[in-house]
Amino acid sequence: MAYKWFETVAVAQRRAEKYLPKSVYGALIAGSEKGLSSKDNLESFDQLGFAPHIAGLSNERQMQTTLMGQSTSMPVIISPTGVQAVHPDGEVAVARAAANRGVLMGLSSFASKSVEDVCAVNNQVLFQMYWSGDRDTMVQRLIRAKAAGAKGIILTLDWSFSNGRDWGSPWIPEKINLKAMVKLAPEVIARPRWLTKFAMTGRFPDLGAPNMAPVGTKPPTFFGAYYEWMQSPLPSWDDIAWLRAQWDGPFMVKGVSRIDDAKRVVDLGATALSVSNHGGNNLDGTPAPIRSLPAVVDAVGSQIEVLLDGGVRRGSDVVKALALGAKGVMIGRAYLWGLSAGGQAGVENVLDVIRGGIDSTLLGLGKSNINELTRDDVVAPEGFFRKLGS
Question: 3-state DSSP call for residue 33?
Answer without folding.
Answer: strand
